[in-house]
Write a structure and sequence with these properties.
Largest sheet: 4 strands, mixed
CATH architecture: 3-Layer(aba) Sandwich
CATH class: Alpha Beta
CATH topology: Collagenase (Catalytic Domain)
Order of helices and strands: EHEHEEHHH
Structural class: alpha/beta
Radius of gyration: 15 Å
Strand order of the largest sheet: 1-2-4-3
């Protein structure tokens, strides 16, 4: 479906494998988010890891000493096209899915789309921004899964 020359979205596993299916469709869908938002996309590397790895990254690069489900690094030298690395804790995604009473698949995709939205310029620091982000995540999940 997607040729390797055109692929701008890549998935890597550091020390844990996510249960991702239809990665070709997912890559294209993520690219479509950027297109719809009018943002150029050079490349995104999604790196799936454990809590331990993501906590170390959080401490070292952000001076935060707590677990999180996702950390997004925008590595773009300019604003024309996004280049980024996104680290996702599969441990945290699983735990959050249980707390939220949703499937791990749904929560994993929410986090993946959440990172893409951040890279498109959305924030979640204020209550209003967080509500907007959640609404967009829900919309993206519904469109992607066709529910």
């Amino acid at each position: 479906m997607a040729s390797s020359k055109k692929t701008k979205v890549h998935f890597f596993s550091h020390d844990i494998r996510p249960n991702l299916r239809n990665t070709s469709d997912l890559r294209q869908y993520i690219q479509s988010i950027f297109k719809k938002e009018g943002k150029g996309l050079h490349s995104i590397n999604y790196i799936f890891c454990t809590d331990k790895v993501l906590l170390r990254i959080n401490q070292e690069y952000l001076n935060h000493d707590f677990y999180t489900d996702v950390i997004t690094f925008n590595l773009s030298p300019n604003t024309k096209a996004v280049s980024a690395e996104v680290y996702v804790s599969i441990d945290r995604v699983r735990e959050n899915a249980i707390k939220l009473r949703v499937s791990i698949t749904s929560e994993l995709h929410r986090v993946i789309f959440h990172a893409a939205l951040h890279l498109c310029g959305y924030n979640d620091k204020t209550k209003k921004d967080l509500e907007t982000m959640r609404r967009l995540e829900d919309k993206l999940l519904h469109r992607y899964f066709g529910v």
